[in-house]
């Protein structure tokens, strides 16, 4: 599996145990800026928030697009 590049990675306060990881997948033309406040707020509560780039869906290869996206999420 390849290395996933996150648009943004918000982490909690140093010294606190991370409660969990939240993956955010933008859609409808949204981007990183849309999730800045959300990411910072959850990070303040000791969650790691990772914003992925919006998935690229090829109309002529829907199954392949979804498989590639699944691999990205698994990474």
State the main characteristics.
3 strands, 3-stranded mixed sheet, single chain, alpha+beta, elongated, 29% helix, 75 residues
How far is the N terminus from the C terminus? 7 Å
**Biggest β-sheet strands, sense, barrel:** 3 strands, mixed
β-strand number: 3
How would you state the average pLDDT, rounded?
A: 86
* Strand order, largest beta sheet: 1-3-2
Low-confidence stretches: none
Overall SS class:
alpha+beta
How much β-strand is present in the residues? Answer: 15-25%
Helix content: 25-40%
Global morphology: elongated
Radius of gyration in whole Å, from Cα? 14 Å
SSE series: EEHEH
What's the number of helices? 2
Folded structure, characterized:
The mean pLDDT is 86. This protein is 29% helix and 17% strand. It is built from two helices and three strands, in the order E-E-H-E-H. A three-stranded mixed β-sheet has the order 1-3-2. The chain has helices at residues 36-44, 62-74, and strands at 8-10, 20-24, 47-51. Strand 2, helix 1 and strand 3 form a beta-alpha-beta unit. It is an alpha+beta fold and 75 residues long. The chain is elongated. The chain starts with 7 loop residues before the first strand and ends with a helix. The longest helix has 13 residues, at 62-74.
